[in-house]
Every structure is written in structure tokens, then in C-alpha cells.
Design a protein that fits this description.
By secondary structure, the protein is an all-alpha fold. It has 6 helices and no strands.
Length: about 120
Amino acid sequence: MGLAGGLGIAPVTSVAAVISLMTMANCSVALPGRLHHVYWPSVRVAALAIVPSITAGVLLLNYLSSSASVIVRVLLGLVIIYAAAGPPLIYHYYRQPLEPIRIRNTLTLLFAGHW
């Protein structure tokens, strides 16, 4: 996403939509039969933050992509640089006293919700 958006190969909104569809497809293949390994209490709490954030992000992306594409590219670059060591959610889950399979499936489910 960073390369395509940064080089102007495609509009950032289109790249974001394609990445979201790919994530949804990957998660739909990875999760069937594994939902019993998801740590549901934390999914509910994380969803309370994720759903409004995604909504605000999509609205902001649509607004900025039509009026300030340079700002969108700069913000994309900053987010990629800032998150190079891994997203905070991943770091948080791997610090919890949960089995690795529960962590992996919980994160997969949460990332599937980003579409």
C-alpha cells in the first residue's frame, strides 16, 4: 500500500479498498474451524475502539483524497514509518498470558474486521 500510494500508481482510496478485500479473503480462509480459539472478551473491547476508528478513517480518507492528496501521501508515509516495528494491537496481544493459537486467531479476526 505504501509503495502504490507513495508512487502514485493508484489512488490511495483504491489501494486501501483492494488491501481490505485481500485481508478479508485471507481471513475468511484462515478462520473457519478456528473461532473457538478466539479470545472473545478482548474482541468485544477492541471492537469498541476499532469500529468508530475505521468509520472516522474512511470518512477522513474520502475527504482528504478528493481535496488534499499530498497530505494523504505524507500521512501514509508517516504511518508506515511509525508502525514499522509492528502495530500496537499485535504488540499488546503477544504480551498477554494467552496461548499463541488464541492470539493468532484473535488478531486474524480483528484484522478481518478492518474492512
